[in-house]
Amino acid sequence: MSNTDSKSRAIPKLDRIFNNPDHIVEDGLRGYLLAHPNIIAATDNPRVVKRREGSPVRKVGIITGGGSGHEPAFLGYVGKGLLDAAAIGEIFSSPTAASFLDAMRSADMGAGVACLFGNYAGDMMNVRLAVNDAAKEGITVGTVVANDDVASAPKSEIARRRGVAGEILMWKAGGARAEEGGSLEEVLAAAQKAIDNTRSIGVGLSPCTIVANGHPNFKIDTGTMEVGIGHHGEPGVEVRPLARSREIARMMAEHVLNDLPFQKDDNVAVLLSGLGATPIIELYVLFADIADIMKEKGIHVCHSFVGNYFTSLEMKGVTLTVMKLDEELDRLMAHPTHSIGLTRIGTFYTPLHKEAPVIMRSLQAEIEKTVSLEKYSAVSGIPLNKTHNVVPTLIEAIINAREWLSEIDGKIGDGDHGINMAKGFERCRERLGDNPPSLKEALEILSDSLLAGIGGSMGPLYGRFFTGMAQPLSHTDYIDTKIFGLMLDGAEAGIRSLGNADIGDKTLMDTLVPAVRACHESEQQSLQECLKSVSEAAEKGRDSTIDLVARIGRASRLGERSRGVLDAGATSCCLILQTMVHSLAALDES
After folding, report:
1. Distance, CA of 547 to CA of 210 (rounded, Å)
2. If we measure between CA atoms, which residue out of 171, 123, 154, 160 comes closest to residue 321?
3. CB neighbours (10 Å) of residue 159?
4. Beta-strand (E) ranges in 443-545?
5. Which of helix, strand or coil describes residue 421?
6. Which active-site residues does the annotation give?
7. Interstrand relation of 48-51 and 40-42 (parallel, antiparallel or unpaired)
8. What does the pLDDT read at residue 365?
9. Is 199 helix (H, G, I), strand (E, B) or coil?
């Protein structure tokens, strides 16, 4: 057993309530299901929950998914008038593609499924994979991506903005329109209209701690506030001295109202959510000041929601969300709902008058291209039948680096990279058992374990990475310099199939691409020399990320504040490559 195995690792000393820090999501989900059996129900996938009572008539299914730690989001909005199913990720990490797909399956009633989720790299990748797989099963899925956080990108780059508490109003609009019997197109249009007319901003007063990390991943000095903070602790647009409620209300309102913009005589819905540790009475103090500002500007608050709707563990702070209403959105906000996180009782309930139209089931026309590599068979080199321990050794390296990788990630991310990588690789170790197969099959098992076991962006990325790496091994019994080059080509192709990151973006590509090039440049040398070149290039690429500004992913919103630290993905990629190089070099020597 590894000395960093979850059973033997020291339990963090925190004033928090938990059993095993690595199982807090599973334990919390169990509690939700036991406490609310009249609202939500388990599914065959332990990371997907559904409505206890489905719709009595055919309607468009509504789903979402996201990381845990934001409760009551996301599973807390599964219920009548809102979501039909939700996929659940690790703390602050996207659900897997498999969980999104199972949520789609659960919600499908023959009228199509609307997947309404936030603009985060991991969610985007996993939803994309799930939508493709659903299409192959004849399930039609449409998507709307929330991007309401005004602080996360300028208005000229609105597509880069992340989704925050505005997602709740998007779910409310889409869920209500589905209950009215709207078609998939009508439901998607209502959800899109909702998010297009919604703006949010957060203010953080204290950091939060992922229990498995045991310490905060960022700092907010006492007496200051982080304006524009993200729900994972992403730094905002500025740090200010802590002000009184009236000044905070005016500052937040200016950021939000000037962005759409909102104007005199507009009707709006206002949602004010605590971030986890803000006393409820203080939320109402702030709401009163916001209401005064709205009245002063001639803006009419027609719907108000105050409470802990979208949190960040035990962070102190608040998110202000404002939606501009038209007749349709006003009606959808008033529609009755019943869920853990939001219940709205109308003066009367009108049963559905019609069913949603049936979606004609057909296979998706465009299926993602699979990695296609040259078929080559080596006649000498490392025998594949001697490679049984390569992946188990890699697993040990990643699990042993858990805290180190999380510490690096915590400097400009949410600190969960090592945690999630270790969980996924541990899942693979359990599947490999005591008699692991040779490298090709072991890499395929590792790929499947990561796709199914790691949320966020790393599950799809490393899943495709190892799928591509395994493919050239289908045609050979030996590994020589050319085979190893093809393996790295496959890994790179797998990553590129999911996005457009490249050298200089401060991602794992800064490690991988130089390693691939070094391998091909040394293909005519001995395998030992080739492996050494790959290791050196990978390390140099990893270290180059210290001086880079992130241009892709969550850290890209930090700008210059992302410079000066290693990228976590580049670091784990370097560890993977160097560990494999070391194992293969040892086999070659023997």
Report:
1. 27
2. 171
3. 9
4. 478-479
5. helix
6. 70, 232
7. antiparallel
8. 35
9. strand
